[in-house]
């Protein structure tokens, strides 16, 4: 039996220190997971229940270390915002995963960006519509190579930040997450059956803002290095 169209390419992430690749299944994102960011978005982090949204796997843009990668400015937006995030990649799945066991499901971590058409997201909020047009643009999930947890460990603290043309725009610490990685994995597994290849964008610190064509974003997490993108 043959496919009636060419098979879409599988999205795979490079792995630091290995020639092997990590195949991506689904991309989950947690919303407003740093208190200062929740407040800058007009939410109360002490009262808000955790929530998630998804990006298409093919919205990921692979960004190697040591180069500046062109990043396309998407159509139909005048407010294209950056959000630097720690990304966790799962090697094992399941349902109703206990929080105490959740880190055993994580293969590794990467630096990522949840790029957002903020004007479209804000309009969706006003009209009580889904966020897809704001969050799921082509290439809206830049991501660096994966660092295996077997060599890195599971980071719970460390600087996370983003600069634009060398000027600091976001600065925080992984310890400021409202819900830790194991909490996110455990909670997600009550909504979905998780599978190997799922990745989770774990939230962004305060300071999100617009980027313009011709500007270079550099996203960095302590212990994971940095990725750089030129907006074109």
UniProtKB/TrEMBL annotation:
Fumarylacetoacetase-like C-terminal domain: residues covered: 27-228
SUPFAM superfamilies xref list: FAH
Keywords recorded for this protein, A-Z: Metal-binding
Region annotated Disordered, chain positions: 121-158
Record GO terms (molecular function): acetylpyruvate hydrolase activity; metal ion binding
Protein name listed in UniProt: Fumarylacetoacetase-like C-terminal domain-containing protein
């Amino acid at each position: 039996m043959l496919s009636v169209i060419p098979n879409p390419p599988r999205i795979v992430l490079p792995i630091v220190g290995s020639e092997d690749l990590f195949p991506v299944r689904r991309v989950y994102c947690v919303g407003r997971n740093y208190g200062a960011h929740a407040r800058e978005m007009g939410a109360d982090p002490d009262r808000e229940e955790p929530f998630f949204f998804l990006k298409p796997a093919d919205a990921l843009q692979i960004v190697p270390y040591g180069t500046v990668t062109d990043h396309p400015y998407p159509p139909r937006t005048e407010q294209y915002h950056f959000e630097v995030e720690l990304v966790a990649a799962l090697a094992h799945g399941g349902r109703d995963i206990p929080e105490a066991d959740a880190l055993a499901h994580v293969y590794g971590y990467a630096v990522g960006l949840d790029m957002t058409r903020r004007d479209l997201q804000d309009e969706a909020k006003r009209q009580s519509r889904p966020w897809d047009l704001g969050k799921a643009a082509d290439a809206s999930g830049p991501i660096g190579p994966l660092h295996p947890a077997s060599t890195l460990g599971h980071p719970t603290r460390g600087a996370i930040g983003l600069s634009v043309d060398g000027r600091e725009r976001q600065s925080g610490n992984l310890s400021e997450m409202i819900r830790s990685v194991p909490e996110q994995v455990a909670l997600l597994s009550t909504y979905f059956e998780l599978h190997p290849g799922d990745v989770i964008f774990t939230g962004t610190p305060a300071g999100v803002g617009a980027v313009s064509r011709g500007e270079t974003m550099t996203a960095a997490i302590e212990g994971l290095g940095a990725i750089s993108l030129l907006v074109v």
